[in-house]
Amino acid sequence: MSSTPIYAGSVSTVLPILSKTAPYADIPTQGSPNWGGIDREFLQAGHNERIRQNGTIYQIRFAVVNTSVLEQFNFTIWRQNGSNFDMVATTNNLIDNISNGINLITLSSPINGVQEGDFYGYRIKASENSLYAYYNINHVAYYKDGGATSKKNYDWKGNFANNIFVIDIFMEKPNMVFIGDSIISGFPAHRSFITEATTITDIPSTIENHWGIKVNKSYQNMGYAAQTTSQINNRFNSDVISLSPEFVLIEGGVNDVINNASTQEILVNWESMVQKAHNNNITPVIMLILPYTGGSDQQLNTIMYINEQLINISKKYSPSLVVDARCYVGLSRPSGPSGNCWDIKASYTSDGLHYNSAGHERIAQAIKDSFNSTNSSTPPGITTQPSSQTVNAGQAATFSVVATGTAP
């Protein structure tokens, strides 16, 4: 990675192979120019403003209110280095590609080597404010008058405002989107980059990162802590369908059970998500509800019933996969049925519900094992069991090709 200039050109549409990777906010309705200043450089440092995917940036999109006063605009990428930051890349001055309104720019030299968790920024020179940025207490923009004075180990902290200037960032569509609750988000060590008002970050500990390393595929983490299946379903279009991944791993339901939601409601929400994926040519990967040491026998029986019904839902939508990670991370509770894997192994949890990095690694392995390893290196082609049956550790299974695509 270098910080050499990247040249650009304006275009009219987002390339069909791309999807948005940051920020979680959208470009707002434009007001009077209130942002940019005379000679400043900015770093958007809010948690849900960070980039959600590893890969290459091909296009960016942003709005300008008054180009007549704008002299310089550079787009930048920064990476955290301890408490400071290193510049990853900068564009040249984009002023010749900018007009009033929304600007979509294709980078003729794409920014390679971008990592999940990187930050975006921008350099402005103008005779007065030329941009519009909206205020929200959960957003953070650091700024330096006269611009950053170093590209390595730079201390951005100091001047800040609770505003966001949205620059949509586009990379190749992710192979898999992970959507769910705190388990997918990465709690307790990590929060996904759709979460506001936090700085808790430990990307290497997450299910997604472990999976991505195992299979060398791209992903976006769209988990949000404490959500029920209804809440996950409500954002499914914006957080999955709009990204057009090849696969979506869906997780959720334990919060519903904890909050005494009916099994009918849970299953309706689940099937709605599976159906949305299926109708949009996205292969659903159904993760059965995981062990829950803190749950009562009654709650675990309810979860077991839901899991049985999720397998039946999978059979209705081909192609689909079922991930059964229960016995990868669980052990049998004496009061439950034989081989129940209701409780989380103590070495994988601190609270009986969420997982540490070691537990996340085992779940990632279960996801990988749900795909036929014999075909994983020979795309196209994914494989599932003929009846969308589950796969437990050590269980023999026969696979057959049921859909085309690049297998994770």
From TrEMBL:
Q: Spell out the Gene3D superfamilies in the cross-references.
A: SGNH hydrolase
Coiled-coil region: none
As one GO molecular function, the record gives:
phosphatidylcholine lysophospholipase activity
Q: Which UniProt keywords apply?
A: Hydrolase
Q: What is this protein called?
A: GDSL-like Lipase/Acylhydrolase
Instruction: State the Pfam families in the record.
Output: Lipase_GDSL_2 (PF13472)
Q: Which InterPro entries match?
A: Ester_Hydrolysis_Enzymes, SGNH_hydro, SGNH_hydro_sf
Q: Which organism is it from?
A: Candidatus Methanoperedens nitratireducens
